[in-house]
Known about the structure:
Structural class: alpha/beta
Amino acid sequence: xxxxxxxxxxxxxxxxxxxxxxxxxxxxxxxxxxxxxxxxxxxxxxxxxxxxxxxxxxxxxxxxxxxxxxxxxxxxxxxxxxxxxxxxxxxxxxxxxxxxxxxxxxxxxxxxxxxxxxxxxxxxxxxxxxxxxxxxxxxxxxxxxxxxxxxxxxxxxxxxxxxxxxxxxxxxxxxxxxxxxxxxxxxxxxxxxxxxxxxxxxxxxxxxxxxxxxxxxxxxxxxxxxxxxxxxxxxxxxxxxxxxxxxxxxxxxxxxxxxxxxxxxxxxxxxxxxxxxxxxxxxxxxxxxxxxxxxxxxxxxxxxxxxxxxxxxxxxxxxxxxxxxxxxxxxxxxxxxx
Length: 338
């Protein structure tokens, strides 16, 4: 499954290519609470079909009524981009389902040019990080190659949105936990690859849409060219596979690196990496283990929910409180009186 940004852009391009009129809406600014973050996009076709989201649904409905023929409206106009704001008054906030005090500002692009969208998609499909600049006065969009992720920005005249290839997950080990993690990652828009040199484990893999990497995990981590949108998770339970893969991962810019294991096994892993491989407490600060957040999980499916939640928190730059840390939470529960 593609990331939602890629899905919106690809759908908008395909609709335009097929001769439809299309509105591309982007969340430009928010004040107070908002359902979707800045940079979120949706594509709206002239007949009312929608892909993506800029709110919880009410604003999408308003845009359909205003700009399409779905309910007998005039249809999408031509012209330069417009800025529209929702939720200025309490009545508007209530009408459009915005949280208390929330205000949302959208940039509306009417029938964006097909060729720049095609070029953008080609770069994203090639794994590039791209900044899309939009000048509101003219509606002209330009693309800039970059190697540095940047926050979405809008100064009232120019929008700059940094777009990249979809998030990726590399799993070391092909057991049941890996299958549940792969399933959750796929429906969260990640591209997933799995590496396990043990043929008896790979032979039973059942999740479709996952790339199978052949070779030793440390070699595959190196070849995978992890970037800032990559997470690497070792779940083989075999130190010969996990440790070497983690060593390579720790020297990459991956946003999340983790390994399955109990508190004792995680501590033993850290000691091995320090004693035998020259790592230090500082270099291991990026290594998550035990992985996941504490939800009392026992089954592979429950553990996968726990791990995926921690991965998404890291992806979204959310600092989790110590109360959900597995080591801390388990320690506290062990010392509770019966």
